[in-house]
Write a structure and sequence with these properties.
single chain; about 675 residues; alpha/beta; UDP-n-acetylglucosamine1-carboxyvinyl-transferase, Chain; Rossmann fold; 3 domains; five-stranded mixed beta sheet; five-stranded parallel beta sheet; elongated; binds 2'-deoxycytidine-5'-monophosphate
């Protein structure tokens, strides 16, 4: 997961390959709650691991359910037939609507002494219609803040279930889902009827609910979309084992990717055309826009068809979440695309109509919006630009409103013909449903190497370049190449193979270097799977590296390996010849210096911390000698690249140095 403040996605060229998607959020949280309410133990496979399911799991633990997590398999021992908690419990629901609504209903119907709170945005998301319905049937619920919104306080109910229970269907289908999952708890000796008031939106989500209720032994009788009857004698029963389908809404980004990007097509694993999720019908919308889709029981394959995409007009009531993806596909179309019947967007993680319009405009598009519709005009698509296209692509910093779908949708703008990058702010918000979304995207998307940014950092020994480079890499979410480590590992491997580090063994060492089986895992360096971190990080390891690094054939042999570190979304490269030889076109090169006195002091501190004795004057003399040798050597001497910016950090903290590099980097970006 990218936990950086922002993620810059370079302009992308093509996409090919397959992705396996995480479990559906809607199915995951329903399954968790149903497993908690039923009698017996349920083994849930392929559960989504995300903020929303974490919230639900935490709540179930608080209620006293047995919860055992092993990767994506979770075993839940239900509360059915066991004691319901009587002590006061406060639940924190974050911004997880799929946990908040059904849990509120279940807790209110069972009764207790409960408080439910969330993040500030959760306290702005309406729940009044659900509370009204629950009060109608005798539940005791109070608002602790603004009427109609969380936080809530729940007490003991006096249930009256003889007449039909009305619930509004035109704000969020989650209210009806919540009642459908809670009321079987009270249907042991009488049938219970729910009546929907107003046109029911998001019907597919109700289908998911009914489908899953059936798996747990509750056979709801549906009369049109207006009446739902839970038969008398209903009782939750564990299905024993249940598999969660991959998220069809998450699939929409990869379906769109297949439709937009050139390449050999995209295969999506974990969900197919027979999915019980309504958002699978996004496939039809994508096909109308030009995608070529084939599918099987648990997979989809998508390729580009029409290009530019074809503009469409669509009533999106049946695919409320996935339809957001169409708004970004519309930028690649041959005319304006109109998305209708999307009022529900206004009460989601953010007001999604406002958000999608504002961010599409930042990219340069013309967008019109109404109370429940959005019209997006396309941007130029190179040689295929349509006459109706207005405006120009702009490199934009996309605000994501703590809304996972906004973040995922806009990553698709990186295929723009103007080849401008896209910045996604707060990329970790995708954790709500798809923590590794960007990793999945980068695993199938390719960019032209000249578009994948490289920042080079070099400087004399003990200047702190390694620390600086790895900190900047962490801030940007970029890969990190410690090229010195490659020379250290090469020397280590050479000695292990019984070679000397002299010129006489140059070609043998170069052969080793060319196929160096080295892997980096965080701070660890593995050679042939063996941890060699300590061995290569010693002073002796540095000396040995210095010896092999003067051999031209060895340097040549390591070029390809170093180039292979230039991967999406970008690279921090640390070492001698990064900016001069390996990545001469890097858009930012920093030459880090510090006075010999300062460096000697730092190295001294380091050694003392590690428990070695050291003499500061000797260290300084040593450093000065090494500088002189490094600067005068004929192969890859220590000297700044011509276009490098010098940073003297003698008087700077590491944070201040990182900040300076970030300021330089920002000044080279196209984002306003
Ligand atoms: O940065 P370091 O101390 O790990 O480097 C070990 C040795 O390798 C050092 O003598 C410099 C040399 N080196 C090099 O010649 N070229 C590089 N790109 C990186 C390191």
């Amino acid at each position: 997961m990218f936990s950086t403040a922002f993620l810059d996605i370079p302009p992308l060229q093509e996409a090919s390959g397959s992705v396996t998607l995480p479990g559906s959020k809607s199915i995951s949280n329903r399954v968790l709650l149903l497993s908690a309410l039923c009698q017996g133990t349920t083994v849930v496979h392929d559960l989504l691991d995300s903020d929303d399911t974490q919230v639900m799991l935490a709540a179930l633990r608080q209620l006293g359910c047995g919860v055992e997590v092993a990767g994506t398999t979770v075993t839940i021992t239900g509360l059915g037939g066991r004691a319901w908690p009587t002590e006061a419990i406060e639940f924190f629901m974050g911004n997880a609507g799929t946990a908040m609504r059904p849990l509120t209903a279940a807790l209110a119907v069972q009764g207790g002494d409960f408080t439910l709170k969330g993040v500030p945005r959760m306290h702005e998301r309406p729940i009044g219609d659900l509370v009204d319905a629950l009060r109608e049937l005798g539940c005791a619920i109070d608002y602790l803040g603004n009427p109609g919104f969380p936080p809530l306080c729940i007490g003991q109910p006096a249930l009256q279930l003889d007449k039909p229970i009305p619930v509004r269907g035109d704000v969020s289908s989650q209210f009806l889902t919540a009642l459908l999952m809670a009321l079987p708890l009270a249907a042991a000796d009488r049938a219970i009827t729910i009546e929907v008031v107003g046109e029911l939106i998001s019907k597919p989500y109700i289908e998911i609910t009914l489908n899953l209720l059936a798996r747990y032994g509750i056979d709801v009788k549906r009369q049109g979309w207006e009446r739902f009857v839970i038969p008398a004698g209903s009782r939750y029963q564990s299905p024993g084992t249940i598999h969660v389908e991959a998220d069809a809404s998450s699939a929409s980004y990869f379906i769109a990717l297949g439709a937009i990007a050139q390449g050999d097509g995209i295969r999506v694993n974990g969900v197919g055309a027979d999915s019980i999720q309504g958002d699978i019908r996004f496939v039809e919308a994508a096909e109308r826009m030009g995608a070529r889709v084939t599918s099987g029981p648990n997979w989809l394959e998508i390729r580009r068809g029409a290009w530019p995409l074809k503009a469409i007009e669509l009533d999106c009531n049946h695919i409320p979440d996935a339809a957001m993806t169409l708004a970004v596909m519309a930028l690649y179309a041959d005319g304006p695309t109109l998305l209708r019947n999307i009022a529900s967007w206004r009460v989601k993680e953010t007001d999604r109509i406002v958000a999608m319009a504002a961010e599409c405009r930042k990219l340069g598009a013309t967008v019109e919006e109404g109370p429940d519709w959005l019209r997006v005009h396309p941007l130029p698509n190179g040689q295929f630009t349509h006459a109706l296209t207005k405006g120009q692509w702009q490199g934009a910093s996309i605000h994501t409103y703590d809304d996972h779908r906004v973040a995922m949708c806009f990553s698709l703008a990186a295929f723009n013909a103007a080849q401008v990058p896209v910045r996604i702010e707060d990329p970790k918000c995708v954790a709500k449903t798809f923590p590794d979304y960007f990793e999945a995207l980068f695993s199938v998307a390719t960019a032209n190497a000249r578009h994948i940014p490289v920042i080079c950092i070099d400087g004399p020994t003990a200047s702190g370049k390694g620390t600086l480079a790895s900190r900047v890499a962490a801030k940007l979410g970029y890969h990190y190449l410690d090229s010195g480590a490659l020379y250290r590992v090469t020397a280590h491997a050479a000695l292990q193979a019984g070679l000397t580090l002299e010129a006489s063994d140059e070609s043998h060492i170069a052969n080793l270097a060319r196929h160096l089986p080295v892997h980096f895992e965080g701070e660890q360096v593995l050679l042939n799977g063996m941890d060699v971190t300590d061995a290569i990080r010693s002073e002796q390891g540095g000396m040995n590296a210095s010896k092999v690094s003067v051999l031209p054939a060895v340097r040549e042999a390591l070029v390809q390996l170093q180039h292979s570190f230039q991967r999406l979304p970008g690279l921090l490269a640390d070492g001698r010849d990064m900016g001069t030889v390996i990545f001469p076109n890097a858009p930012l090169k920093v030459f880090l210096t510090a006075s010999a006195a300062q460096r000697a002091e730092r190295r001294h501190k380091q050694l003392i911390l590690k428990g070695f004795s050291a003499n500061i004057d000797a260290l300084r003399a040593d450093l000065e000698a090494r500088d002189a040798r490094d600067m005068s050597r004929s192969v890859a001497p220590l000297k700044p690249a011509q276009d490098a910016l010098q940073l003297d950090n003698s008087q700077l903290s590491i944070e201040a140095s990182v900040e300076q590099v970030m300021v330089w980097w920002q000044s080279r970006q196209v984002f306003g």
